[in-house]
Amino acid sequence: MIIVKVGGGAGINLEGVASDLEELETPAAVVLGGNAERDRIAERMGTPKKVLTSVSGYTSVYSDEAAIAAIMMSYAGLRASRFVELCQCRGVNAISLSGLDGRAVQGERNRGIRVREGGKTLLKRDYSGKPRRANGSLFRVLLEAGYTPVLTIPIADERGFAINSENDDIVNVLQDELRAERIVQLIEAPGFLDDPEDPSSLVARLTPADERARTGAALRPGGLPQA
Length: 227
Fold this sequence. Notes:
about 230 residues; alpha/beta; Carbamate kinase; six-stranded mixed beta sheet; globular
């Protein structure tokens, strides 16, 4: 089987993704993004996305209750349902579930983000966290029955509350359980670039060691981000 991670940008060709799934001869699980839809819904709710920058320079979306509501409406609601509709129209028996459903993805809530505000260091807690494990038995039941699972955030924290999380991390815990032969990432960017400002600097192939080395360099203080 394969895992397909679909980005959440407004320009993602969901029709094309659904058509490609139709052509597959192997089972697939989809991890579906929806950030553009979330931002649109959050604006209409009057609660636009908030971004925090930690004292270490790391930026993240502040996931308060309003943000979780927007995630539920966009990712687990409109985005997932529209994508499942596209799949069903092509004969792909897709079924959507968030990480909450059957605790498809179990996570651990973050302890907080240290930020500087008004000359003080504050600890901001929100509804976000890291995925720790996927419910492999649930996904295997669906896949063996001929369904194509379409997974979105939110995921469940230790007590079952909805939390935001990163889809790259969700793909990792899903892979730990399912051991897919291949992971396909579909995003709006041209791919992994040596120079984020130069689309022609595409890196055509990376070994796992290359990926770890480049990621480590990007995360070190002063390191150049790789996109």
